[in-house]
Each structure stands twice: as C-alpha cells, then as structure tokens.
Amino acid sequence: MPTIAQSERAALADLFEALGPDAPTLCAGWTTADLAAHLVVRERRPDSLPGVRLAAFAGYTDRVRLSALRGRGFERLVRELRSGPPRLSPFGLPGVDGIANTAEMFIHHEDVRRAQDGWEPRPLDPAVQKELWGTLRAAKVLLRSAPAGVRLVSPGHGERIAKAGEPMLRVAGEPAELVLFCFGRQEHARVTIEGDEDAIARLRGSDLGV
User: Fold this and answer.
1) Residue 194: which H helix or E strand, with range?
2) pLDDT at 87 over 90
3) What is the predicted pLDDT for the residue at 42?
4) Pairwise CA distance, residues 35 & 27, whole Å
5) In 3D, which of 34, 16, 26, 31 has the Cα closest to residue 79?
6) Helical axes 175-182 vs 96-113, angle rounded to 10°
7) Which one in 14, 33, 146, 190 has a CA-CA gap of 20 to 30 Å to 116?
8) What is the CA radius of gyration of the chain?
9) Range list of H helices, the chain
10) What are the pLDDT digits (tens) for 111-137?
11) Which class for 160: exposed (0-12), middle (13-18), buried (19 or more C-beta within 10 A)?
C-alpha cells in the first residue's frame, strides 16, 4: 500500500497535469509551475534547502527554483515529482519520505485545490486524519509566533497545547484543517476559534508556520 505521502504526491501530480502550469495556488505569487519547481528542487537540490527557512539563503534557493523551471519545463517537473525523490537524495533514504513529506505533500496538494473556484474539503480516510494529527507534534514550533495561547482540539483525536499563554484560544477542527491552519493557511482552513475576539483577529492575521 502507498504511504500517505506517496498518495498525496500522486494526486498532486494528477492535479498539476489537469490544471496546467499557469493555475493559481495559495502560495503567494506562485503558479502551479512555480510550486512544481519548488517541490522538485527541494528533493533534488539539497544545497538549496537552507533558503526554505532562512531568509539569508532565500535568494539562492529561488534562483535554483527558477533555473529548474526554465531548464526542465512544467511537464518534466511533474514527471520528476511523480517519480519521487532519487535514491541519493536525503528524502530518498528509507523512511524519510513518510516523515518529511506527509504534511508537505498534503499541504501543497491543498494549496492547489483550495486556490480554485468552488473547492470543498475532501473526505479523508480516518487513517489519514490520524497521521495528520500526528504531524501536529510540531505545533509548538509552528505557532511559536502566535499572539495568544492556542489549544488545538480535534474530536476523536485529542487536544494539544500549541502555545501556552493568555488569553487562551481554542482552535477546533479535523486534523487536516488544523494542519493547514498551523502552516499558515488560516483563511482557507475550516476551523472554529473560540476566545477573545481581538486575539482571534490577531491570530488569523499572523504569519504561522514560518
């Protein structure tokens, strides 16, 4: 059976092919071609990885991405994404794909889906929701810049204190929606937030997940 990361990768590649290179995504300023290049470079050019998180290296990372886009073209990028990380990539080591790419592929799949008109959340298998809930062990890092305390709640899965503090906000939803929320897709995540109204407004406008 394919892993969740592999299933999301395949579904995202299918969606790229269906929409073409110029469709919008939730990644600011990026089309589907830009996002495909990012995903391929991430797995095939480890020298560009620091710029994904560190502003000092971001310019180099973007140059590598743009070079891949110009040199490979959209169709080849989608083929390489679909084939998965090469064996010599850090992401090709046994077990790494599932750890590193479950949230990555799910989120970017939704970045494309939810940027299109008329989107609705997908029905997801309970096993997928369970694994996505597990990825929220990183929530304390993802929400470290949150302007208030945050308790994540998902019926049937449990609760996590993502950030201690007052006022404490309660963010509830399916694990998939909480993952999107914590990774900065607040406007497109189907969650409910309870607590101080001013703190809720600040949380929705925060740069989470960075």
Assistant:
1) strand 192-194
2) no
3) 92
4) 8
5) 16
6) 90
7) 146
8) 17
9) 4-19, 32-44, 50-53, 55-72, 74-83, 96-113, 126-135, 139-142, 175-182, 197-204
10) 999 999 999 999 999 999 999 999 999
11) buried
What are the CA-CA distances from residue 26 to residues 58, 76, 155 (Å)? 19, 22, 27
Cα–Cα distance between 150 and 181 in angstroms, integer?
Answer: 12
Q: Which residue has the tokens 């092919």?
A: 17
Give the whole-angstrom CA distance, residue 88 versus residue 173: 38
pLDDT in tens, 15-44: 999 999 999 999 999 999 999 999 999 999
Distance CA 115, CA 110 (A): 8
Residues with Cβ within 8 Å of 71's Cβ and at least 6 positions away in sequence, in order, are none
Least Cα distance to 85 among 73, 74, 100 occurs for 100
Instruction: Assess whether pLDDT exceeds 90 at residue 53.
Output: no
* Joined tokens for residue 17: 């092919």
**What pLDDT is recorded for position 86?**
86
168 Rama class: left (phi>0) / alpha (psi -120 to 50) / beta: beta
Q: Is the whole-model pTM more than 0.70?
A: yes
Distance, CA of 108 to CA of 84 (rounded, Å): 15
CA distance 69 to 8: 22
CA distance 181 to 166: 20
Structure tokens at 64: 């590598």
